[in-house]
Amino acid sequence: MTTPEVGSSTGLRRSHRVVGLAAAASLLAMVLMVSLLAENATFPNALLVQAAQFLAVIAAVAGAAAFLTGVKVLLAEAPHLRRPFLVLVALSSCVFLIHMYIVDSPATFTASSTSGAVGSSFSDDHVGVTTTLQGADLVVHIVNEGSNAIGEVTVRLNGLELSGSALDPPPEPDSPLQPTSASGLGFPTETEGRWTVQATNASTVAVDYTYLTCYHVPDSADRRGVYGCIMDETYYVPSALGIISGTKCAPYADSCNLEHPPLAKALIAGGIAVFGLNGLGWRISNIVLGTLSVPLLFVLVYQFTRNRALSYTSSFLFAADTMFFVHSSAALIDVPSVFFSLVAFIVYFRPFRVWRVDSYVVSGAFFGLAVLSKETGVFALAAVVTYEFIQGGGGIRQGLFRVSGVVSSAVLAFVLVVQLYDSSLTSAALPWFYQHVGFMLSYGSSLIAHQLNCQPVTGYWCKFPNSPGGPPILPIDWLLYYAPVQYLVTTVTVGAGGAVGSTLRLVSVGYYGIANQLIVWEVFIWVPLVVYAGWKSRRAGSPLIQDDRLGVFLVVWFLWSYLPYIALMAYGRVTYPFYIIPALPALAAGAAYFVTREWFPRKMTIIYVVAAFGIFFLYFPVKDFLPDYVRAILGH
User: I want to staple 285 with a disulfide (CB 3.0 to 4.6 A). Which of 4, 96, 215, 271 is the partner?
Assistant: First the structure.
């Protein structure tokens, strides 16, 4: 009987070493990749980018090996977690597949084609084509006569493709053919190709092309066209492209977006480098981090409570939040900050030490990554510091030691990465990290509500949609109700079931910025419950039970993610509704805290979770799997 135990113990030790080595290899590959990209930013070189892509693959493979082996070790050492693991894998897989279902909605590139006889002119809604044949020389002249840029063009003669290299200039996704409306701005609006062909067989010319849906054509000579179509993608995708190309930055330059830290945009750049300049490329990093945030919330809650029902419900409600799902589906910067904050919380509340590095230093590094993704990640760090002094054990001295380790590590990570970015890309304008931080603070303080023109282009979310003169959406409205903000909504009119003359108007693609109010409204119940539990425990002189300790942390987390915007509102600054995103995990777990109390009916919990997914389904961005009349009735 002893031999299997010894063998099993040896195998586990070997697996632990594999996890450590694979994680170290993944981390080293990522550090080298960042170093190469920083070098490429200073001295652009295609070989550096290719090497960085290779290192990205190594980092991904090594990271996957570390994760899978770590899961194997966890399930071997804690067999009671096998069922939760399978449930979380199923839930995360569903979330990921749903993201992938809509990842290219609307399509980044839309294919089209037009054709005509050789020697004639023909056109469609996007391009005008003129063909001439002089002897054996075929000339095809193509003009962009539509409103969209043209990313790729292929010319076919009698069904056979002609060499695209003959087109001058050659339209490409990163240098598209602009509409004729931009002809006065110095951008190419037409292209021409010449080929030698067999004149006797030349009868039909076809021009196949793709026009760019998620692309904004230039509106001035100093503003080049930009990619992205879901809300602020039009800022972050160009910024990511600037990181890839090594474009040098200046404040307010379209390719830089210096008002925010660089990490989230660097992650977007990594996706583009691997998957290309398309919707999948610039959205995949957020999809992955948003998906992984769902099981991370389970781990955090279970780590506090060992309560499976509460942990499951927290993750399911978090997965049902519309706002977080939409921001996870687009190239935006809030989700990476939430992801790294969740990892930081988990590491902080699970003490360990490897050599001279303890969990508080590692946790601080992840908090640094959260702030590097978006500066509001500092509120998550403030939450854990506050909770440490409210509920942490070991006395003030130990509390200060833990907090100092976290804060110093976070500051160091932030300073190093920002300085690396500034030295590579912004040295002409902002050579030092503290200057960059000063610029971010000054930019943020300049967003004063009454000074902004609240129109659809400049920020309609500060007022009710389609109501320029309506009241602003204030932070108190985030917890009550406001009309869903339309990030990107396109409608179509279709025939109604074949009835003559009847039509239906429905939403073909609709990204809405609104949290799941069924989850948010519970804050008015669970926060008082936690406060009452704390008062009751203090009065009895007994320690809080595990669930209530979690409740206290959730209250601190929520307040740090919400109250600062009350102060900013009082200052007069614009407070966009999506600023509530860092609070969404706390709100989901808080709602779960309420509906999983022993006295709360289990059937009502199930009904509540199902209803939350009903709200999520109502605002799901793409519902083309439903009959048209159902989509018209839903209206979203």
Answer: 271
